[in-house]
């Protein structure tokens, strides 16, 4: 294995000719060398290599990022695990999208300046041979390609009602136009309306090996920076930073030196990359749900999402730490590839697989969607106990009617399983986690119950109708999360004069239309008995009713003295056509009006 030169990306690390490198840990060894400084400076072959490259990428996967920086499979494994600490422009590798609604295009500008290499004379005359016995390094840097990378990351976050695919197309088109526009000037810029809108809402992040006076943050800033990039290196009068380095095995200089026994299997590297890519996608989904307005409205739901976010971060750290412990040993020959395969096997039986995490997030999305469908546009959602008390105890309000979500605080068996995995060893004690398999099929969520769903729809319908029928300053309608296992799902709570008087209030509801009996002498209205009403309110008029808000004043109103189911209308004009309807009345308020019935008095 350890008999050929290797070419790797420098990734912002200070890798210069003569520096020692340990390929087992993908780290350089500072302060130790095979030659003295003067010999290194005297025997370096330098060749000018001025070249410029421009690339665009609309994908933001780990694989595509690695390709832009020419990261090889073995080095990629070290980067994925966190073994490699990148610097300069390579910090771009850590810039990940935070939202699933985020569109991104990356522009990479690369400039090479010169190529430096050690001569054969230098390789043959080693000043400090004792380095071989230390076995801290496996290779020595024999050649370096210098230059600079610059990455400009263009981001646009779509609104929920925007077509993300169209936004991505416009974003890519706008970024691709930037080089021509920088050369020909803004006057040459031809953009569609969609492209202009995207360009105005782009955020830009710069990662580079160039020294800028000010980093760009907008599309216009990016245009100005791009104009300067070709001359920045000359103005700063330097050859740039190491971009690519070539490593020579120390065993070819001395058989006693440490060596790289084996590379990491590319198949396992790809599987590891897939796991971390899936973790990133899950993280973006979770971020979006946490920012959802319903999560702010209902703190119990948000608390679960934040808890998931925390255990997800902890798991990612644990996964990468496990990789760090085995990669150097596999490369050094003290462990087989199986050690990495075992870590992936533990992951595949953990609660943190992509399928399980996404399924749980699907449930959370369903819960938020249900809550969103139950929240009425003009009603306040009370998010804290303090706010609830201030409303209930308000002396200017006689009655508070609250649509309460009673089942939002519950023990989540999936989150418990994730914590259990992390608390009982995770990757460090696989024998304790192997038997603790978890299935989300076993989890019970309140909103999946048909009985609870039916009750919720009924309560929402009653609450909505009652709130619309009773708009006055003395009655206040609110929505809140108040746990109550006696009424799973939702209940309507009634507060009167600062005290809870009914945990399962049943407001008066819309009655069936009245039956009208006319005779020569009178008009009799027959009502359906109200289960919760104390009396009825009769409303009648001589003009056809409309849906206009001002139309309510056209109704003449009279209340019955009790809950009698028949009522006689008096003082009607003979031969006149009327429309009549009625409402059930309780001590709290009135119901929605019944459908109106036309009749002609005799």
TrEMBL record:
PROSITE patterns: FN3. It comes from the Eukaryota. SMART domains: FN3. Residues 508-602 form the Fibronectin type-III domain. InterPro entries: Cytolytic_pore-forming_toxin (IPR052090), FN3_dom (IPR003961), FN3_sf (IPR036116), Ig-like_fold (IPR013783), SNTX_MACPF/CDC-like_dom (IPR056072), Stonustoxin-like_helical (IPR048997), Thioredoxin_11 (IPR040581). This is Verrucotoxin subunit beta-like. The lineage of its organism: Eukaryota, Metazoa, Chordata, Craniata, Vertebrata.
């Amino acid at each position: 294995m350890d008999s050929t030169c290797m070419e790797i990306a420098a990734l912002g690390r200070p890798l210069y000719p003569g520096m020692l490198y340990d390929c087992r840990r993908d780290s350089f060894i500072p302060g130790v060398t095979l030659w003295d400084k003067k010999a290194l400076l005297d025997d370096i072959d330098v060749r000018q290599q001025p070249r410029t490259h421009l690339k665009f990428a609309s994908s933001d996967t780990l694989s595509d990022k690695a390709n832009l920086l020419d990261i090889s499979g073995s080095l990629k494994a070290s980067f994925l695990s966190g073994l490699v600490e990148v610097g300069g422009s390579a910090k771009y590798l850590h810039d990940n999208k935070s939202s699933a609604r985020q569109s991104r295009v990356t522009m990479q500008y690369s400039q090479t300046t010169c190529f430096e290499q050690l001569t054969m004379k230098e390789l043959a005359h080693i000043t400090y041979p004792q380095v071989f016995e230390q076995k801290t390094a496996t290779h020595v840097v024999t050649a370096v390609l210098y230059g600079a990378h610059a990455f400009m990351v263009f981001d646009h976050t779509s609104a929920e009602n925007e077509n993300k695919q169209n936004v991505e197309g416009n974003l890519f088109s706008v970024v691709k136009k930037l080089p021509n526009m920088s050369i020909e000037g803004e006057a040459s810029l031809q953009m569609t309306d969609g492209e202009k809108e995207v360009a105005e809402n782009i955020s830009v992040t710069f990662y580079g090996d160039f020294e800028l006076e000010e980093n760009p943050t907008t599309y216009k800033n990016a245009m100005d920076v791009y104009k300067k990039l070709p001359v920045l290196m000359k103005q700063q009068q330097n050859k740039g930073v190491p971009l690519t380095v070539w490593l020579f095995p120390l065993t070819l200089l001395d058989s006693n030196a440490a060596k790289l026994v084996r590379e990491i299997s590319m198949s396992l590297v790809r599987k590891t990359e897939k796991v971390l890519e899936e973790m990133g996608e899950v993280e973006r989904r979770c971020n979006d749900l946490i920012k959802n307005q319903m999560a702010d409205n209902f703190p119990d739901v948000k608390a679960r999402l934040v808890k998931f976010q925390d255990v997800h971060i902890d798991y990612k750290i644990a996964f990468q730490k496990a990789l760090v412990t085995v990669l150097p040993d596999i490369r050094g020959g003290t462990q087989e590839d199986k050690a990495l395969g075992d870590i992936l096997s533990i992951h595949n039986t953990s609660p943190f697989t992509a399928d399980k995490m996404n399924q749980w997030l699907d449930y959370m999305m369903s819960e938020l969607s249900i809550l969103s469908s139950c929240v009425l546009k003009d009603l306040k959602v009370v998010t804290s106990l303090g706010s609830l008390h201030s409303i209930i105890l308000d002396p200017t309000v006689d009655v508070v009617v609250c649509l309460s979500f009673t089942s939002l605080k519950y023990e989540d068996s999936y989150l418990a399983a994730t914590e259990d995995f992390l608390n009982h060893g995770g990757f460090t004690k696989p024998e304790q986690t192997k038997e603790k398999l978890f299935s989300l099929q076993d989890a019970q969520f309140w909103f999946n119950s048909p009985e609870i769903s039916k009750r919720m729809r009924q309560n929402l319908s009653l609450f909505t109708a009652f709130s619309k029928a009773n708009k006055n300053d003395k009655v206040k309608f609110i929505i809140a999360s108040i746990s109550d296992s006696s009424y799973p799902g939702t209940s309507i709570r009634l507060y009167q004069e600062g005290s809870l008087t009914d945990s399962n209030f049943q407001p008066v509801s819309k009655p069936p239309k009245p039956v009208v009996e006319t005779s020569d002498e009178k008009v009799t209205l027959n009502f359906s008995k109200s289960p919760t009403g104390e009396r009825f309110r009769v409303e009648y008029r001589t003009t056809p009713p409309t849906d206009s808000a001002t139309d309510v004043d056209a109704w003449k109103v009279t209340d019955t003295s009790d809950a009698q189911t028949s009522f006689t209308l008096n003082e009607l004009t003979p031969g006149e056509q009327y429309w009549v309807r009625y409402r059930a009345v309780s001590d709290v308020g009135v119901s929605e009006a019944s459908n109106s019935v036309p009749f002609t008095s005799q």
